[in-house]
Amino acid sequence: MPASTPPSTTVDAVPRRVPTQARSRRRVEAILDAAERLVVEHGVEALTTRDIAQAAEVPVASLYQYFADKEEVLLALAQRDMDEMDEQVARDIAALPAVTIDAVVAATMAAFVEVYRRRPAFVVIYLRGRTNAAVAAFGRVHNARTAATLREFVLDAGLCDERLTPAIAELAIELGDRVFQLAYEHRLDGDPVLVAEGVALLTAYLHRFAPGGDAG
């Protein structure tokens, strides 16, 4: 079992009116599900609030009760999928028979692949939608928080030492993020060869910061 609690990297929820009644919650979920389908079919840039409302079979005015614009819909979708991803990562790390750098990197990357398989819209929004300023900003905030959380985890577990600075941890996360961007650039199911190379790259890099590693 891990020497510390598996990491969670949830970004704060997108500001919007939070539905409290079951009917309102179902309406919001219908809006998000409709947006998810449209993103997979047409991409981020083509998405409009009118199209989302039509696909969700709700009046446009109802959509605006919960989301100010399409960016808020996109970020709510990204947040929903990121929460699922955080849960998957924590669950998979907690299930590791032995906590090593190799195992943690492999489990984390595999968890991402599993959620991308279940949530293809997340691939389109998060990995391919960076031309959207709101999505790009969301990605940077999440990467920074992921880096801080995972750094704390590997230090607490004794896998790395203080030479793994916050800046270096963030660099590692950005490298992994870029691996996924390239692996999923042309395929919704990703390129397993590129993902495997990314696992090998990040594992070797983090070993430099293990106790006795060769990082300067």
From TrEMBL:
Q: What is the annotated signal peptide range for this record?
A: none
The family database entries (InterPro entries) matched by this protein are listed as: Homeodomain-like_sf, HTH-type_TetR-like_transc_reg, HTH_TetR
Q: Which organism is it from?
A: Nocardioides fonticola
Keywords from the UniProt entry: DNA-binding
- SUPFAM superfamilies the record matches: Homeodomain-like
Instruction: Please give the Pfam families that the UniProt record associates with this protein.
Output: TetR_N
* Every HTH tetR-type domain range: 25-85
Q: Return the annotated DNA-binding positions.
A: 48-67
Database matches in PROSITE patterns: HTH_TETR_2 (PS50977)
UniProt-recorded name of the protein: TetR family transcriptional regulator
What PANTHER family does this protein's entry cite?
HTH-TYPE TRANSCRIPTIONAL REGULATOR PKSA, HTH-TYPE TRANSCRIPTIONAL REGULATOR RUTR
